[in-house]
Specification:
10 strands; four-stranded antiparallel β-sheet; alpha/beta; six-stranded mixed β-sheet; 10 helices
Length: 253
């Protein structure tokens, strides 16, 4: 299957006040693939993820040069509806944030805000989202119990389901399994492999090992710079840059 660039980042520089967080970034995220952005802390990974759906707009004195194109349209064009952009490009954070309501209402919350009132429609949406997030079988008998009773791994997959219920095109994940046990981490990774059939996924993994397991494409970030970008298979077996190899093999980080 041929893949096309869903998101293209062109000459992106990002600043918070006088601090430059990203330095002349150029990369593409292909449709129906997983792009893993990896590297040491404070490398610019989260800034890049948040730049893709303009969450950095919420930070005082954030500004940028360059472009972020979604299907060829600059997301920073003044005519862009930012709320619609964030529906199309959904974000899952490192810490799962469950609403203090039932499992069902957590997933139905976004569609209700969009104006969907028909209960059968909501039930179908919740079922599809929980199934896609590989959570349905574990919670189908607990839909009306508090979401906060779920395990950490289940709450993280619930966070993914909540994003999916809004029918996005791109899913951004910022270390979604950083606090999870190995079994929960594996379930998250399994769900991502299934989700990429229908979505473009960009993830800042919590470890090099996770990046190597899941990446179709990979990008190594260091101190706000994109050091190396290419197929996951190449970067994790035959990196071209010595700094990439040093990081992957644990010489620093």
């Amino acid at each position: 299957m041929a893949h096309q660039a869903k998101i293209r980042v062109e000459n992106l520089n990002f600043y918070f006040g006088a601090l430059q967080s990203l330095k002349n970034i150029n990369l593409e995220a292909q449709s129906n693939q997983i792009l893993a952005i990896f590297g040491p802390a404070r490398g610019g990974k989260t800034t890049l993820l948040r730049a893709l759906n303009r969450l950095n707009d919420l930070v005082h004195d954030a500004h940028h040069t360059g472009r972020v194109l979604l299907d060829g349209q600059d997301v920073y064009d003044p005519r862009v509806d930012v709320a619609e952009l964030r529906r199309k490009v959904g974000m899952v954070f490192a810490l799962p944030v469950s609403l203090p309501t039932s499992v069902f209402e957590n997933v139905a919350y976004g569609p209700r805000l969009k104006g969907i009132k028909d209960h059968a429609h909501l039930e179908e949406t919740v079922y599809k989202a929980l199934t896609a997030a590989v959570l349905w079988e574990e919670v189908k008998d607990r839909l009306h119990t508090p979401a906060l009773r779920l395990s950490g791994g289940q709450q993280q997959r619930l966070s993914i389901a909540r994003v999916l219920a809004l029918e996005p095109e791109v899913i951004l994940l910022d270390e979604p399994s950083s606090g999870l046990d190995p079994i929960s981490t594996l379930k998250i990774e399994e769900s991502l492999q299934k989700l990429k059939r229908d979505y473009t996924i960009i993830i800042a993994p919590h470890s090099v090992q996770q990046a190597a397991r899941i990446a179709d494409q990979a990008a190594f970030f260091l101190m706000g710079e994109l050091i190396e970008y290419g197929s996951g298979a190449e970067i994790f077996t035959r990196p071209r840059d010595q700094r990439t190899e040093d990081y992957i093999t644990g010489r620093f980080g």
